[in-house]
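Board notes, transcribed. Complex of a protein with iron/sulfur cluster.
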Amino acid sequence: MSTQRRPTRAVRIGNIQVGAGAPVAVQSMCATKTRDIDATVAQIAQLQRAGAAVIRIAVDNDKEVEALAEIRRQTDATLAVDLQENYRLAAKVGPHVDKIRYNPGHLHHVERDKSIADKVAWIAACARDSDCAVRIGVNCGSVAPEFLERHPGNQLEAIVQSAAHHCDLMEQLGFERFVVSLKDSDPTKVVAANTRFAEARPQVPLHLGVTEAGMPPDGIIKTRLAFEKLLAQGIGDTIRVSLTLPNDRKHEEVEVGHQILADVEAGRFISVPDFGKGLNIISCPSCSRVENEAFVDLAANVRELTAYAAKHRITIAVMGCRVNGPGETDDADLGLWCGPSTVNLKRKDVKVGSYSYEEVLPRLRDELDRIIEERAA
Ligand code: SF4
């Protein structure tokens, strides 16, 4: 089977073209500390060998900008940078990368007296000056509050409209060198959001991703369920598979991405009728921001500890840092997000407490048992 790709416009990211029928590019992200230049350059090479076309790095401060400049000197990879709240770093990172990603849901956190439109204009100007593409990366866990207010109880519409609004802002500036992503940890929502967006903005190239898909094999299944449906409809110009993996296995994200593309092209689709009906563990893929390297082990330990509850429809989120941890765990029944020496445990959006990496596991089990008992009653 050969899928007919939807006609989007071409966006150049370094030497890579995305959209307008170009082959779907597989991306990945470094999970090493950006300031550890040797480790990051080595991981870039590891991801390149697996076939990553674009490699993203997290940069949050000036020290990391300095490291990025040196990383740029040591690799020929096509690099993207992930900006979170500190959007003004765009001017400093732009000269060293080929693409800048910003999250519309994070722009309101800083310089509150400045309009979102002005901040987007700044990012577009930085991208133009540095010959960079942009990704407008919308995420269900951090939707811009004004769009949640405009679409109460309809998070899906809020993320689609937030992305469309940022496309408008960019296009009004005459800047069209951007792609959009609409990510969630639930594959059903990823399909719905991207399908709706592709209908509303057929010309905009889409970067597909199921965020915090978690550990293999479940993380791969979740990603496949979303990508298969979208790619088979011709939606998606570039993909990123987000898996919780130790650093020496990070390249598996890229291998899985290529495998999904090959399978969809050949008409091979998976069937998992009971998937998603029981315990759901979501966990982030980790990045430079991860607060403690014990995070990947913690995610694995949570999976092992909670296996006894496999039949219960409960979601547990395990996140690596304070940047996205607090927000991205709000919708889960139980959430854990990592600090440098403690793990914060939440039940929905209410904090239960902070515990050491060892103590948090029995506390998690207590809370899980309590939820199961309450539901049985
Ligand atoms: S939650 Fe934090 S550590 Fe995990 S991928 Fe997101 S930014 Fe990186």
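The pocket of iron/sulfur cluster is lined by residues 284-287, 289-290, 319-321, 323-325 (CB under 6 Å). The two ends are 50 Å apart (CA to CA).
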